[in-house]
Amino acid sequence: MKHYLNINNLEDANSTIQEAIKLKKNPFQNSESGKNKTLVMLFFNSSLRTRLSTEKAAKNLGMQVITLNVNDAWNLEFEDGTIMNADASEHIKEMAKVVSQYADVIAVRAFPSLKNKTTDESEFILSSFSKYATVPIVNMESSTAHPLQALTDAITIEELKTKTRPKVVLSWAPHPKALPHAVANSFVNIMHELDVDFSITHPKGYELNPNITKNTPINHNQEEAMKDADFVYIKNWCSYSDYGKIISQDTDWMMTKEKLGKAKFMHCLPARRNVVVEDAVLDNEHSVVIKQANNRTFAAQIILKTILENL
Ligand code: CP
């Protein structure tokens, strides 16, 4: 693996999951593999889990870590051939090459604007780094993908499943803000790689990109979709067809203890209590969100370890 930009970069998702579970048992077994190597993490957007778990993963491998909130640096220009007489002081071509001299691996978080589908789907920030940087790039959540989160989610399901082929349901939930599709997209991508009975439930109009969902079963009746589910993954996303819009805030889609039944509750966090999910779910033993957040470290660590082995 050179870059980790999306789930497709995993050579074999199932063996990566098994390796991560093994690594979790002894996180310091490769503590020399990142010696004298530096991870530079660039954040265009806020983070709690991704920032701390990726730093912890790198340090478990013996790497040094430098973090920059990009808004603290010069405004960047991404277009080629622009006359830079406005706000942007530095072009991504120089920025990516300069940072590459300080880094052996660069990790980038850059959310979409949710204003222009074509621009967002071009992944121009992540793509510019993979084009102009001279070191591997790790996606810490981009416009359309959050592959570290999805790997985490798959590790969590593998650890907690009690049957060979568990039933996993991805359900939309209401939210006051328009949120990206990245978490849902990558979750769908990785579920397609696993031996699971996978389906999606959401109100009409919240269809994800059909090139990602492909032939995944979709049910517009949440309770029917969740019947006998082993894992229910809750996530809000904005409309894809009416791009970036909130077309429903139907509170009936909030996850409740009663609807969840015996299923395990999953969420990438942060989660708005009593909007996305009621207290009684998050405060119940059926919630695995804290275990999920812990697995962020081991997902990041297996990816960094693989990249280091290929430097
Ligand atoms: N789940 C996730 O990516 O968390 P942060 O946004 O806090 O990094």
Q: Major sheet: order of its strands?
A: 9-8-7-10-11
Which structural category fits the helices and strands? Answer: alpha/beta
DSSP strand content: 5-15%
Average per-residue pLDDT, rounded, comes to: 98
Largest sheet: 5 strands, parallel
Shape: globular
Q: Name every ligand kind in the structure.
A: phosphoric acid mono(formamide)ester
Number of strands: 11
Helix content: 25-40%
Secondary-structure blueprint of this entry?
Elements: H1 13-25, E1 38-43, H2 49-60, E2 64-69, E3 76-77, E4 90-91, H3 92-102, E5 105-109, H4 117-121, H5 124-132, E6 137-139, H6 147-160, E7 167-172, H7 182-191, E8 197-201, H8 210-213, E9 218-219, H9 222-225, E10 231-235, H10 257-260, E11 264-266, H11 279-282, H12 289-309
Parallel strand pairs: 1-2, 1-5, 3-4, 5-6, 7-8, 7-10, 8-9, 10-11
The structure holds phosphoric acid mono(formamide)ester.
Main attributes?
single chain, alpha/beta, five-stranded parallel β-sheet, four-stranded parallel β-sheet, 11 strands, 36% helix, 14% strand, binds phosphoric acid mono(formamide)ester
Structure, described:
The chain has 311 residues and is α/β, with parallel strands linked by helices. Helices cover 36% and strands 14% of the residues. The protein is built from 12 helices and 11 strands. It has helices at residues 13-25, 49-60, 92-102, 117-121, 124-132, 147-160, 182-191, 210-213, 222-225, 257-260, 279-282, 289-309; strands spanning 38-43, 64-69, 76-77, 90-91, 105-109, 137-139, 167-172, 197-201, 218-219, 231-235, 264-266. The strands form 3 sheets. The chain has a 5-stranded parallel sheet with strand order 9-8-7-10-11. The chain has a 4-stranded parallel sheet with strand order 2-1-5-6, sandwiched between helices. The relative contact order is 0.17. The model has no long low-confidence stretch (mean pLDDT 98). Residues 47-50, 141, 149, 268-269 line the site of phosphoric acid mono(formamide)ester.
